[in-house]
Amino acid sequence: QMGGRGAGAPENSPLQIFVKAKKKINDIFVEIEDYVKDAVNYMHEIEKEQQILDEKSVRQAEEFVQKVHGIKDVLARDHMKVAFFGRTSNGKSSVINAMLRDKILPSGIGHTTNCFLQVEGSPSDEAYLVLEGSDQHCSVESVASLAHALCKEKLKESEMVRVYWPRNRCLLLRDDVVFVDSPGVDVTPNLDEWIDKHCLDADVFVLVANAESTLMVTEKNFFHKVSTKLSKPNIFILNNRWDASASEPEFLDQQCDEQAGVRKQHQERAVDFLVKELKVCTPDEARERIFFISAKEALLARLAEQGQSPTATLAEGFQSRYFEFQDFERKFEECISKSAVKTKFEQHSQRGKYIASELRDVLDRLYLDAQHLRDDKLLQRKELHDKVNYTEQQLMVITQEMKQKIHHMVEDVEQRVSKALSE
Ligand code: GDP
């Protein structure tokens, strides 16, 4: 009964906005491709026989075939990308694991993520990882082997390790969501390099904060940098470890009041950060972007639901935290799919429209040229026709004249003959 949207009900997920849009725009490009190919084949055919086609138009139409191919390739790779940031140990890996409903990323002491980790659906239903600058597939059977593989390599903090995980094990991966886990923003990173390398194409950013403390300058700085490079980034703030503040001894007596007070304070600060400091959204929008959750509990609950771990003993208030986690997921899915459709497909549809209208211009020109050619030929035929007519008329006149002349001559001769006879 805790499950909410279970793994078996994908069709009402807001991610379907992206999935369906992707399918539709792909279908449209299949049609555009047919149209462009037909046009090119037709041009090649008439190129052989007629002289109305200029070389340039044919080459231009051939280039459209290449362009449509290029767009279809990019389209096939288009995905929704979410990047997680926050200080080390705030629970970034735990949040990702809870969303993926599986312990995929190593988390906890000694498993600090010291490079960027990207998790995406595997094209082959095998789990493997690929290090930056290599195309070798290292197979990973389990979290332990993933953690081991990551420790073994000397990785730079801005480097990216891609983890490919079987799509059928997680709806989010199946629906083309790509997760990026980052090293803690407190590890004195080169923020500019991070952002340029890994963030410019992110549709959503999630700041995983620690509900036991206030937002840190390092965390805020990172997002200030992000918002100078991207206009109005979509940012969610998760106040994680909300279970830990619930079970603190001083809360146990007057828990509700105290916790409500702390929550209100965190909430106000986070709203101010998004609205007044970063200016990325309105106060109403901000309230839909801030959540108080426990990633650890959500993950444990999901593992227990799937029978992968014994049912955990749940702390006070678990239900409402878990409900809030699910609420976050729903708002997140809505936000990421809408944003990805807009940023990714708008460009494709502009280019599709451009190609279709350019090709129409080429064909229009071809049609006009063909019409001119026909008109010219008709004119030539008419001139010829007129000439023939004229000659015929002339001939008639001449024949008529000749007839008369002959007639006169005959008459004349007759007269003269009869005159001579009578004389
Ligand atoms: P990261 O460094 O930000 O990726 O943090 P991890 O996900 O590795 O989490 C660090 C430690 O905090 C781990 O031992 C987690 O089990 C623990 N942790 C993560 N989320 C929560 C939470 O919501 N509540 C509690 N109590 N512990 C958590």
Tell how many strands the DSSP assignment holds. Answer: 9
Computed Rg: 39 Å
- For the largest sheet, list the strands in their spatial order: 4-3-5-2-6-1-7-8-9
Which cofactors or ions or other ligands sit in this model? guanosine-5'-diphosphate
Mean pLDDT: 86
Helix and strand string, N-terminal first?
Answer: HHEHEEEHEHEHEHEHHHHEHH
Poorly predicted sequence stretches spanning 5 or more consecutive residues: 1-9
| Shape descriptor | rod-shaped
Secondary-structure class:
alpha/beta
| Residue share in helix | 55-70%
Largest sheet: 9 strands, mixed
Topology:
Blueprint: H1 15-49, H2 55-77, E1 80-85, H3 92-100, E2 116-122, E3 128-130, E4 138-139, H4 143-152, E5 160-166, H5 171-174, E6 177-181, H6 191-199, E7 204-210, H7 217-229, E8 235-240, H8 242-246, H9 249-253, H10 255-277, H11 283-287, E9 290-292, H12 295-305, H13 318-422
Parallel strand pairs: 1-6, 1-7, 2-5, 7-8, 8-9
Antiparallel strand pairs: 2-6, 3-4, 3-5
Helix pairs in contact: 1-2, 1-13, 2-13, 3-12, 6-7
The structure holds guanosine-5'-diphosphate.
